[in-house]
Amino acid sequence: MTHAPAFPAPVVLWSKPEEERAGKPLLVLLHGYGANEQDLLSLADLLPKEFAVASVRAPLVSDAGFTWFPLTASVEYSLEAVTDAAAYVEDWLDSVRPNHPSVTLLGFSMGMALATTLLRRRPADYAAVVGLSGFAVDHGGDPSFRDAELDGTVPMFWGRDQQDPVITPDKIEFTMGWVRKHVKLTKVLYTGMWHGINQQEIGHVSEFLTHGVLNK
Fold first, then answer.
1. pTM for the complete prediction?
2. How far apart (Å, rounded) are the C-alpha atoms in residues 118 and 138?
3. What pLDDT score does 89 carry?
4. CA atoms of 155 and 157, how far apart (whole Å)
5. CA 16 to CA 44: how far, in whole Å?
6. 82: Cβ–Cβ under 8 A, 6 or more apart, which residues?
7. Which positions of the chain have pLDDT values less than 70?
8. Is the dihedral of CA 148, 149, 152, 154 positive or negative?
9. Who's near 104: CB < 8 A, 6+ residues apart?
10. CA 181, CA 39: separation in Å to the nearest integer?
11. Which residue in 88, 108, 100 sits closest to 12, CA to CA?
């Protein structure tokens, strides 16, 4: 029998003080490899003010910061490591979800892999997903991934640069096949962004969140 690793207590940064969060839709930020919970929090100022924004630190220490799971190209990588990370975030989310009418996920790079994994494990739990310069993991038939329940109604924004040097073609190909079958996709390609986020993209994300979540 395998046991989930003993992760540290979640470290979460919020865009608003506790007394201002209740009743607001929740937007959860999931950073990329080697970053931390501070990496994406500045986006909160550029996104709709109606959201309470929470940025979560990944539980594993990596070379430069923190990671949700080992890099997919490494020998340490496993699907179990991905699902352990998802369960870690789910446990935290279950503790705060009652305070919010909806939960939306925004993940950058590896954070997008985690955001899509969370959606695939609990399809009814999320209002929308934003994926930036990232990918979805190949689940290899793992029954905890409930893709069959994703019927194309959950809105998802996927922004990327075709010249992104980090996300490999096989990951893009798998993700493309997955999004076409399972989500209501808004896909935007950017040039000169590489493996990053730019102002134009954040403007598009803000519009997506307004129309896909707030005005739904």
1. 0.96
2. 13
3. 98
4. 7
5. 10
6. 68, 69, 113, 114, 117, 137
7. 1-4
8. negative
9. 25, 26, 27, 28, 51, 126, 127, 128, 129, 130, 209, 213
10. 31
11. 88
